[in-house]
Specification:
single chain, 210 residues, alpha/beta, Rossmann fold, four-stranded mixed β-sheet, 11 helices, 10% strand, globular
Length: 210
């Protein structure tokens, strides 16, 4: 998997979430927080810049209620070397929970709480930066906005981008722009090695639109 592939996937994510995203959810099993998960979070935030952490949430699975979350965090964060400690810091202590084994009614309530937390944090704003703004301009010049405007699902948008070859054209146009320097189109050897190890970003980083 080449650096070009990584860069195109990052660019596709920017296009699919223009003019910006409301939240990044790092969905993590409370029982299996590994160094690979931490590295994945680092890679995502490095790609979009530290300001993205204002919109980042840690979503713990296998947690059924607020009491369980508080007890789990109290124990997990008591260790100064806890892998969770840095994750929580990256997400500015914005921690949500869900338990997929719960009954339907409880799952609906937890889902509503997650959406409410995201909306309250975003306050009708979304994360954006010069990269998003420049991509929107160039997408318009290439005639791509029309093909995107009626699509809501992020994954469908990315699929349309790839199949129409619009992503390739956009990549060639924006690659030399200053705003796509170290923060976006420079993938260090360490980051590339990590990406290869993970086989892409397997730990889910969910981009949610309001």
């Amino acid at each position: 998997m080449s650096n070009d592939h990584i860069q195109r996937q990052l660019l596709a994510t920017v296009v699919a979430t223009c003019p910006g995203f409301n939240a990044i959810l790092f969905v993590v099993s409370a029982s299996t927080i590994t160094e690979e998960i931490q590295a994945t979070v680092d890679l995502m935030l490095a790609s979009f810049g530290e300001d993205a952490s204002e919109f980042a949430f840690l979503l713990l699975t296998d947690i059924a209620n607020e009491k369980d979350k508080v007890e789990y965090l109290a124990e997990a964060l008591s260790d100064a070397n806890s892998k969770l400690l840095l994750l929580v810091s990256h997400c500015k202590h914005k921690i949500l929970f869900i338990d997929n084994t719960s009954d339907k009614c409880s799952l609906e309530k937890m889902s509503e709480d997650i959406i409410e937390a995201i909306c309250n944090n975003a306050k009708n704003n979304n994360f954006s930066n010069d990269c998003f703004k420049q991509v929107a301009i160039e997408l318009g010049r290439l005639g791509g906005q029309r093909s995107m405007e009626n699509l809501e699902d992020v994954n469908i948008k990315k699929k349309v981008l790839e199949e129409s070859k619009l992503l390739e054209a956009l990549y060639l146009v924006v690659k030399g722009f200053a705003c796509f320097g170290k923060a976006f189109f420079y993938v260090s050897s360490a980051a590339h090695e990590l990406y290869m190890k993970l086989g892409g970003i397997k730990e889910l980083a969910a981009f949610m639109k309001k």
